[in-house]
Amino acid sequence: MNPVTINANMKSVLKCIVCAMSLWMVICMVGGCTVLRAASGKRPNELSILYAGQDRSVLLERWGQPRKSVVIEGKRRDTFLVQTGDASGGGRALGHATMDVLTMGTWELVGGGIEDGHSKGLWLTVEYDQNDKVTDAYPGDVGSRRE
User: Fold this and answer.
1) pLDDT tens readout for residues 49-97
2) Which residues, in sequence order, are bridge partners of residue 19?
3) Burial letters for 23-51: b for 16+ Cβ neighbours within 10 Å, e otherwise?
4) What are phi and psi of 140, to 5 degrees?
C-alpha cells in the first residue's frame, strides 16, 4: 500500500469520528429535555384553599401573582392560570428517550410539543370584597361570567 493512501484514509476516518462525536455531543446537550419533563410532571395547584372568606394574600402566596387583576364596579377580580396537574410518566419518559436515540436527538423538536399538550391549566377568576376576602370564583377569564 502506498503511505499517502493510508494517510488519506486515516484523515477521512478521523473526520468521520470527529463529526460523529460532535453530533453526539450536541444530542447530549439538547436531548433529554422532553424525557425530564415527562418524568417529572408538574404539581397541581391546591384548589382546596379557595373558599368564600379566604384572604387574597393566601391565594397569592400559594398560586403566585394573577395573570390579570382588575377592579370592576368596586370589586377586585383576579384571573389565575391554575395548574390542574400533569402526572409524571415513566412510560412516557422511556418512549421519549427511545425516540431520542433512534432519531439522534431530532425527536426533541416533536416531543416538546407533545409534552406541552400534557400540561393542563384552568383559567379561574376570583372576586373579592373591599377587605380582599373571596366572595366568588368561576372558571374563565375576567368578563367571561354569564350573569
Assistant:
1) 888 999 999 999 988 899 999 988 888 999 998 877 666 667 777 887 7
2) none
3) eeeebeeebbebbebbbebbeebeeeebe
4) 115, 175
